[in-house]
Write a structure and sequence with these properties.
Strands 2-1-3 form a three-stranded parallel sheet. The model has no long low-confidence stretch (mean pLDDT 83). 52% of the residues lie in helices and 18% in strands. The protein is α/β, with parallel strands linked by helices. The chain has four helices and three strands; from the N terminus they run ααβαβαβ. Strand 1, helix 3 and strand 2 form a beta-alpha-beta unit.
Length: 83
């Protein structure tokens, strides 16, 4: 991932999840499995002090989970695999 894409991804993640950031944690449902994601999450936590809680699964499983949870879903961000 280029530095520009990396920076833009981090900025977007922070912007989209502003309400969660006030609580000091960000709940991410993710179907991605890339090493670059680990670096992004670690850097984000190091720079902001905000803990990332990640739930992993296949995209369809995560979507079904969010639908079942409805308005009570703890998910702040859903990230699926970019194919």
């Amino acid at each position: 991932m280029t530095l520009i894409k990396y920076t833009l991804t981090a900025a977007l993640m922070a912007t989209v999840a502003m309400p969660a950031l006030a609580e000091g944690q960000l709940n991410i449902y993710s179907s991605r499995h890339y090493d670059t994601d680990e670096r992004l999450y670690t850097d984000f936590t190091d720079q902001t002090g905000i803990t990332i809680n990640r739930i992993e699964g296949k995209a369809d499983e995560l979507l079904a989970r969010m639908q079942a949870e409805g308005a009570n879903s703890p998910a702040d961000v859903l990230i699926t695999v970019d194919t």
